[in-house]
Specification:
The protein is an alpha/beta fold. It is built from 12 helices and 8 strands. It has helices at about 25-35, 55-70, 85-95, 115-130, 140, 150-155, 170-180, 195-200, 215-225, 230-250, 255-260, 280-295, and strands at about 5-10, 40-45, 75-80, 100-105, 135, 160-165, 185-190, 205-210. This is 4-hydroxy-tetrahydrodipicolinate synthase.
């Protein structure tokens, strides 16, 4: 079961229409675009999906759309996180998770819990989740870092905590987890630029943002990494890497949505408090994508 999450997962954006509604046709197009180009799994309603700006009905619409168009082709992971532990437990009990293979649960944000608080939070998640749990550590958004000792404690004590999306940006921290983890525990990069080095250090792959812009090339890079074909992998890394800088230059997902608009997949519109990428960033991404396509054709 854990092998489902080896390789490249992509954290799907939520496309919006010019009227600021969920764009179902564009979401269908996006799912087909990434699945047809070789990604291994999809993450639905993560940070990149602007989930914090979606109401309950919109979330249900996104879930139904992705499940329908994916049609069982690749595994699905559902974002299920909160800084209110008891509310999250209620959600885990009440949410229809049919069609999903795991949940991705972010470390509690804003509250800044201690390591013991983080442990107790995920203990309750593990005890109440009907699906396997992938932890998500992203200190830049949550305001607290889930340290290796806490991750390893959870990995060793709960069989249904199967991995972590590690997005601290600290390769040494990831390596400490990889070195001491249970054999089948998955350490998944949450940082596109560090994904290949993390894989070569023993990681399981990546949950990517740029992977939905260039799914064929990025997922191929990760597969090369898993096979320890380092030259082939780094050749692709160096072709892609400038675009990774660009898509995060003005925040996520404004950057990746700008790229997806250039590629004809969906519009670049985001919801407040985020704003659409600047004309200058569009120009950088346009120039990059034109050169990149010339390189990869």
């Amino acid at each position: 079961m854990r092998s489902k999450f080896l390789g490249t997962g992509v954290a799907l954006v939520t496309p919006f229409t010019s009227d600021n509604l969920v764009d179902i046709e564009a979401l269908e197009r996006l799912v087909n675009y990434v699945v047809d180009r070789g990604v291994e799994y999809l993450v639905v309603l993560g940070t990149t999906a602007e989930t914090a700006t979606l109401n309950k009905q919109e979330k249900e619409l996104v879930i139904a759309t992705v499940k329908s168009v994916n049609d069982g082709r690749v595994p699905l992971v559902l974002g299920m996180g909160s800084n209110n532990t008891y509310d999250l437990v209620d959600q885990l009990k009440e949410t229809d998770m049919s069609g999903f293979d795991a949940i991705l649960s972010v470390s509690p944000y804003y509250n800044k819990p201690t390591q013991e608080g983080i442990y107790q939070h995920f203990k309750m998640v593990a005890e109440n989740s009907p699906l396997p749990v992938i932890l998500y550590n992203v200190p830049g958004r949550t305001g607290s870092n889930m340290l290796p000792a806490t991750v390893l404690r959870l990995a060793n004590e709960f069989d249904n905590i199967i991995g972590i999306k590690e997005a601290s940006g600290d390769l040494t921290q990831a390596m400490r987890i990889i070195n001491e983890k249970p054999e089948d525990f998955l350490v998944i990069s949450g940082d596109d630029m560090l994904a290949l080095p993390m894989v070569l250090a023993g990681g399981a792959g990546v949950i990517s943002v740029i992977g939905q812009g260039f799914p064929k090339e990025f997922s191929e890079m990760i597969r090369y990494g898993l096979l320890h074909k380092t030259k082939e992998a780094f050749d692709l890394q160096y072709k892609i890497m400038n675009s990774i800088d660009y898509i995060f230059e003005e925040g996520n997902p404004a950057g990746i949505k700008a790229l997806l608009e250039i590629l004809g997949v969906c519009s670049g519109g985001v919801r407040l408090p985020l704003v659409k990428a600047s004309g200058n960033l569009y120009e950088k991404l346009l120039v990059f994508s034109e050169k990149f396509n010339a390189i990869t054709v």
